[in-house]
Structures are given as structure tokens and as C-alpha cells.
Amino acid sequence: MLSVVEACGRRPLRSCFDYAQHDAHFLYFCTMIVYNETIIVEESVYPEWINWIKEVHIPAVMATGYFTSYKILNVIDSPNEGVTNCIQYYTDTTDKFNSFYSGHLHVLHAAHHQLYENKYVLYNTLMEVIDEG
User: Fold this and answer.
1) What distance lies between CA 1 and its chain's CA centroid?
2) Which of these, 6, 58, 98, 126, is most buried using a 10 Å CB contact count?
3) How many angstroms separate the most distant Cα atoms in the chain?
4) Model pLDDT for residues 60-113, shown as the tens digit of each residue
5) What is the pTM of this model?
6) Can you tell me whether residue 124 is helix, strand or coil?
7) Domains of the chain (ranges, CATH numbers)
């Protein structure tokens, strides 16, 4: 039988849920926390902004060590003017997110704001995966 660290810490998220099918009690220990940033960016700066996000911002977030992976998504049917993207960062505990939040988030957001002041709107959410198919 795999330990929590072996199943969650070293395998993709899918493995946690696959494993949970064999041990219903395991799911309680194997959660995935998603920190989501939704950013609406003016079209005039979007090409520069997305490059900066990919080349500078996300590597800085990932270098903190609190997240295991990320996704960048484009919102297809956004009612907003500009381009709307979501960046989702994945971690396995709220404690890791809280450490990231208290130690890094404000500095990273300040850098973002300094470069793109008045060119974007950002809001964030913290979510927990409860099922996956």
C-alpha cells in the first residue's frame, strides 16, 4: 500500500484519485488545492504581458516551492473587454498556500502592478478539488 507522500507527493493528481478508488479512507488525506488568479488584460499590452507571465512571473511563483504545477487558461466567453486568462497553481495543502500567501504573494503582485499598472484587473480564488473524472 502506498503512503500519502508516495501517492500525493510524487505522482500526478490523477494517481491520487485512482488510488482512492481502492481505499476510500485515502481520499481524506489526498486533497488538491488550486489557487486561481483570473486576470483581465488590455489587448494593447497582452502579447507583452503573456510573455512576461510565462517567462518571469510563473517561474518566480514555482520557484517558491509551494506549488507542484500550474495551468494557463484563456476564458473564451468572457463578457469583459480585453483578454481574460486564468492561471491555476496546484498544491496539496492549504498550509503551503498560506505560507506562499504570507511570504511571497504580495511581492509578486507588486512586481506585476509596477509593470502593468492600470492595464489589468486581477482577482483570485482558492479552491479544493473534490472530484475528478
Assistant:
1) 30
2) 58
3) 54
4) 999 999 999 999 999 999 888 999 999 999 999 999 999 999 999 999 999 999
5) 0.78
6) strand
7) 1-30 (no CATH), 31-129 (3.30.70.100)
